[in-house]
Design goal:
CATH architecture: 3-Layer(aba) Sandwich
Shape: globular
Order of helices and strands: EEHHEEHEHEH
Structural class: alpha/beta
CATH topology: Leucine Aminopeptidase, subunit E, domain 1
CATH class: Alpha Beta
Number of strands: 6
Distance between the termini: 17 Å
Largest sheet: 6 strands, mixed
Helix content: 25-40%
Length: 176
């Protein structure tokens, strides 16, 4: 059975899934945006665990506990900073989604919620990022049978519309 892949508008810190994804920085420090919201909602234990890990390279991902979040786990992934598109940004972003799905599979996690990685202060163009996110996620799911549900959780309506467009363009016969 193929995993369901959907987009919703909401607050990722309230998602009732096995794992949520944090758009992290390389030092795994609490930051602004999605990262700050996740750290605030999870509580200080998340920062304590992140400190023991210490670093995550762009395109890679690491797993921690979810602490005070409804999700049992957090996968932290470091997206690329947009530098105009000629510095491997597309591949690094695709790698973020692939690594998160791989880690979910390795840990037997059935449901995962993603934010729009790198589209905030990292400046990745939204429509380009959502197309990459959908394509990389769908490709990664082909080798991740444990993952049954993927949800792209969008803070704003613009991101939701972009994800819905990317989902319908990838599979026009499927509802998004």
């Amino acid at each position: 059975m193929a995993a369901s892949v959907t987009a919703v508008q909401g607050d990722i810190t309230r998602e009732r899934v096995d794992v949520i994804v944090n758009a992290a920085n390389e030092a795994l420090l609490p930051g602004g945006g999605v990262c700050g919201a996740i750290h605030r909602a999870a509580g200080p234990q998340l920062w304590e665990e992140c400190r023991t890990i210490g670093h995550c390279a762009p395109g890679d991902a690491v797993v921690t506990g979810g602490y005070n979040l409804p999700a049992r786990y957090v996968i932290h992934t470091v997206g690329p900073v947009w530098e105009g598109g000629g510095h491997g940004e597309d591949e690094t972003l695709a790698s973020c989604y692939r690594r998160c799905i791989e880690l979910a599979q390795q840990h037997g996690l059935r449901s995962i919620a993603f934010p729009a990685i790198s589209t905030g202060i990292y400046g990745f163009p939204l429509h380009r990022a959502t197309a990459i996110a959908v394509a990389a996620t769908r490709a990664a799911l082909e080798t991740a049978p444990a993952v049954e549900a993927v949800r792209f959780v969008c803070f704003g309506g613009g991101a939701l519309a972009s994800y819905q467009r990317a989902l319908s363009e990838a599979h026009p016969h499927m509802p998004s």
